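TA notes. Do not distribute before section.
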Amino acid sequence: MDFSWRRGGLLRGERVFNHVRRLVKNDHIEQCAMPFGAVTTNLSTGRELWLTEGDLHQAVRASCSMPGLLAPVAWNGYWLVDGAVVNPVPISLTRALGADIVIAVDLQHDAHLMQQDLLSITPQSVEDQTTATATSWGGRLRQSLARVAQRKVNQTPAAMEIMSTSIQVLENRVKRNRMAGDPPDVLIQPFCPQISTLDFHRAEEAIEAGKLAVEKKMDELLPLVRQHELPGEK
């Protein structure tokens, strides 16, 4: 991961998004097999902007540029950041794209607010982490956070912790208000508070949490699937 405070965020994001570009071969949204749209926030107007055509990779990058963490994206003379600032669970966009049934996934619900560190801290000592992961960016950042965690009791939260948690508190408020007027047909909320913001290496744990959350909603999901089965399908 590439660090930089001079580009509008803790991370520039070039490395991770270059990797995504190698995995996702389509360059334009119009090439997607299914309708796709990304929600972003226009910093100049404060309004949400739906990206439903054009550069796919830029749209995805803009839609997840969390303020202060990932650098904003320039788009047609504006700066765009994470759409979650104004529309955390974009039910409205999916309906506008023609969805008959909306199954929403909420990753940032209240159960996660008690842990908002950038990287999770393992029980290992700082010395053990130094020998095991000193060569990686994550290792170096984890060492710094671990040292902070050891002195964290009865101390003021760190700046990034305050920023991250505050943003998510605001997002949760916006989300509840919007879903009250336009609720999804099914709401899935994976529970994985042990996985922090930059724990990209813990994807398998996140996937398992998602599977468990889906299993808990099977009673709601199966009738919808059966309702929309094509003739001859089972």
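Switch to the second chain here.
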Amino acid sequence: MKTENQHLSLKITGLLAALLLLAAAFAASLMLGINHYSIHQIFATYTDFNGSNEHIIIQSTRMPRALIAAIVGASLAVAGALMQAMTRNPLASPSIFGVNAGAAFAIVLSVMLFNVTSITQYTWIGFFGAAVSAGAVYLLGSIGRDGLTPIKITLAGSAMTAFFASLTQGVLLSNGKAFDQVLSWLVGSVAGRTMEMFDSVYLYMLVALIGSLLLASHMNVLAMGDDVAKGLGQNTVFIKAAAAIVIVVLAGGSVALAGPVVFIGIIIPHIARFLVGRDHRWLLPYCAVLGALLLVSADIGARFIAMPKEVPVGVTTALIGVPFFVYIARKGGHI
């Protein structure tokens, strides 16, 4: 009993420490950049707004950028953890399994064909593209006598990622206007986003994040395998469908806001699993906080790599994620 209480205390302490680090990174995101602002200026922006350039930049640029980085990082990390539990594949993530690529292609195609510019429309189109891609991967991975297996769904996800990426490149090369409009978005970026964009999406993503927490105990059972889960009385079809909806909302909303940011969904679930084990009741909250922390921190770093210009945050996460992906693959899916 004493050992269990100690483990519980350590998990709570770790989560609180991660939240404090996230708060510090969030404050740094507001303060640091080409122009530096003090904590006093940030507080004054919301307590004594005077219409100065500093206050306008903090409210209209820095704050939405930090909020979007936080919610996108949290969403992609949680989506990755859910996908890994559903498929029992340690390399599963929205970027690897074609969900991000499908959402990105749907948005690029809508820009070319219908000249879509509204972030609200981007959101629903991103959800639709993510759903189509996820459904196609699941269908392809389930074909055959042995049903859905980790190897088959990984191959199906890789195929769909390549397929949608090729289609996206073809659309962009055939339409210069669409290329100019979505280029910075396509590599993954939180720069230049507005509070209006955040307001149009965050409620859906928050509901999906809460839904993931409600599914946590069910994911513990599902991760044991379909036969075991059914033997314990779980309705696996319903749980998988609910988890799939959550994943589509999280991944689709993230792509609509920030473009196809990669590797968050692989890196963070493994780190969280190393810290707190495989219990999704703890794993998912840790993923949400650590995912937000990683993307906010990566965005801060992206501002200083090529000063005075900025590197898209998707490039920064790729630089971090590729070596980590290779390491995990060589270790057989264990950190």
